[in-house]
Amino acid sequence: MFRLAAVLYILCATVLGGGAVTAVLAMRMMEPWQIAGAFIAGCVLALPIAAVLGKKIYTAMKPPAAA
């Protein structure tokens, strides 16, 4: 499950970090610390999202238990 969550983190961090940077730039915040802070916040927010998605996908892929 860890490898799946790691791959999902790469995708989620890119999307959330890029979205946060786009939002910051749309608000005309052009300072480098604001842009970097938005990207870091997006990457941090992606950690629990990737973990939850990885767990849900991993459990959905397991075959049903034989009775």
From TrEMBL:
The keyword Transmembrane helix applies. The keyword Membrane applies. The chain crosses the membrane at residues 33-53. Keywords: Membrane, Transmembrane, Transmembrane helix. This is CTP synthetase. It comes from Rhizobium daejeonense.
